[in-house]
Amino acid sequence: DAGITQSPRHKVTETGTPVTLRCHQTENHRYMYWYRQDPGHGLRLIHYSYGVKDTDKGEVSDGYSVSRSKTEDFLLTLESATSSQTSVYFCAISRTEMNTEAFFGQGTRLTVV
Amino acid sequence: GQQLNQSPQSMFIQEGEDVSMNCTSSSIFNTWLWYKQDPGEGPVLLIALYKAGELTSNGRLTAQFGITRKDSFLNISASIPSDVGIYFCAGHPIQGAQKLVFGQGTRLTINP
Prior knowledge:
Shape of chain A: globular
Oligomer: heterodimer
Order of helices and strands of chain B: EEEEEEEEEEE
Shape of chain B: globular
Number of helices of chain A: 0
Structural class of chain B: mainly beta
Order of helices and strands of chain A: EEEEEEEEEEE
Helix content of chain A: under 10%
Number of strands of chain A: 11
Helix content of chain B: under 10%
Mean pLDDT of chain B: 92
Number of helices of chain B: 0
Distance between the termini of chain B: 40 Å
Distance between the termini of chain A: 33 Å
Mean pLDDT of chain A: 92
Strand content of chain A: over 45%
Low-confidence stretches of chain A: none
Largest interface: A-B, 27 and 26 residues
């Protein structure tokens, strides 16, 4: 295993509630990414981080925020969950932006009702 | 933002057949990567390409980095049942190289 853990693995939440997903790595990799996967859309980048406290937006960042206060943890927060945010969320890590070894977590299935 | 157009979206083939899929972009990429995803799992890296024109193999899989740096293809020879899954192309664009963007995926189904 690549040493990357996502939690929780499954969550059901109500519209309007805040939700935080956690990605934890034990590889000391610099880069961390959050993606969402929906049928027909592949994996779409939400936010990414290139170091502690260094984050940037991806292509579908609206409604999401992230934080990285230490190398090993990258948190994705939905401030007020909506049904359109029902999806499978994947975290990925890589040593550098050019590195081949971009490892993925097992995913978090989030359902907003 | 950068978009990767992957085709075909799905393929239905017989066991033993060869498979070919490709990925194109309107912008230049530094790196092309090919991943496979099994149901309920995260994507797993198959092949990574770093230079224009590079041709790399991994067992029955062969991938190439297009000369224009705007495309890549993946071939699978003599398909077997465990090749079933979704294949994704991905890459680091030259503009915004810290991002890793993905295509929409090719779903491969194999009839025994």
